[in-house]
């Protein structure tokens, strides 16, 4: 019960951050970024072997992290003690079984699509999911007492995406491993307000013109 209350607080916090960002001045935004950066590094430096050496350094001293560097130092960077091979195996098993609810050490593990020929890995805690969901909803969906239906086309689902389900949003995952005809039939039955497809879907979906006319 306490965990759910904590997640709800993170959701509200994420929602309020997004609302405040709409009207914040450049100076106020810069000050907040500096405050949040300092708070982040103080937390991460105690739990991440990679970043511990930068605890008292200025931002200019931090390395620029791209995907190859991140994956090469994944075991040192993450703060929950997971290794890259373990996470990749977990993510691939979830995709193979089509079961995306399992967690490792209390965090959700996801794999990127691999369109750059190298699949990325991300880790998200339940509170981070709630924070992200609040922020995304506030940034993209105007406040309404009517729940918005959102269709997301991806090859793999994640607890992160499912975290947006709730009072403001009805999220539906459309599995790209299915036939496209089946997906179109499901989409027409669902009749979403918002469509979030990959590029391939944008190329194919214009054939369903009547449906697209009703979707944001």
Overall description:
With 216 residues, the chain is mostly helical. The chain is built from eleven helices and five strands; from the N terminus they run ααααααββαβαβαβαα. The strands form two sheets. Strands 4-3-5 form a three-stranded parallel sheet, with helices on one face. It has a two-stranded antiparallel ribbon with strand order 1-2. Helix 8 links the parallel strand 3 (148-154) and strand 4. Helix 1 runs parallel beside helix 7. The model has no long low-confidence stretch (mean pLDDT 81).
Largest sheet: 3 strands, parallel
Termini distance?
36 Å
Basic shape: globular
Counting copies of identical and different chains, the oligomeric state is single chain
Question: Which stretches are low in confidence, meaning pLDDT under 50 for 5 or more residues running?
Answer: none
Measured by DSSP, the beta-strand proportion falls in 5-15%
Helix content: 40-55%
The total of helices stands at: 11
Count the strands?
A: 5
Strands of the widest sheet, in order across it, are 4-3-5
Radius of gyration: 19 Å
Report the order of strands and helices. HHHHHHEEHEHEHEHH
Output mean pLDDT.
81
Q: What's the quick description here?
A:
It is built from eleven helices and five strands; from the N terminus they run ααααααββαβαβαβαα. With 216 residues, the chain is mainly α.
Distinctive features:
single chain, 11 helices, 216 residues, 3-stranded parallel β-sheet, mainly alpha
Helices and strands, with pairings:
Blueprint: H1 2-21, H2 26-45, H3 49-52, H4 67-72, H5 74-77, H6 84-97, E1 108-111, E2 121-124, H7 126-140, E3 148-154, H8 159-162, E4 169-175, H9 180-190, E5 194-196, H10 199-204, H11 209-212
């Amino acid at each position: 019960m306490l965990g759910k209350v904590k997640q709800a607080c993170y959701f509200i916090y994420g929602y309020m951050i997004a609302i405040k960002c709409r009207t914040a001045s450049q100076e106020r935004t810069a000050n907040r970024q500096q405050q949040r950066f300092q708070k982040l590094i103080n937390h991460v430096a105690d739990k991440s072997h990679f970043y511990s050496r930068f605890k008292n350094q200025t931002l200019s001293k931090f390395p620029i992290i791209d995907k190859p560097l991140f994956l090469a130092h994944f075991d040192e960077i993450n703060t929950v003690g997971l290794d890259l091979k373990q996470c990749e195996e977990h993510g691939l098993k979830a995709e193979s079984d089509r079961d995306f609810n399992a967690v490792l050490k209390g965090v959700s593990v996801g794999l990127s699509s691999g369109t750059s020929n190298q699949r990325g890995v991300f880790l998200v805690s339940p509170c981070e999911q709630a924070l992200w969901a609040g922020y995304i909803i506030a940034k993209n969906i105007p406040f309404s007492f009517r729940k918005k239906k959102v269709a997301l086309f991806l090859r793999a689902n994640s607890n992160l995406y499912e975290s947006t389900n709730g009072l403001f949003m009805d999220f539906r995952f459309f599995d790209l491993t299915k036939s496209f005809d089946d997906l179109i039939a499901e989409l027409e039955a669902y009749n979403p307000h918002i469509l979030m497809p990959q590029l391939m879907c944008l190329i194919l979906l214009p054939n369903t013109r009547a449906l697209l006319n009703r979707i944001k």
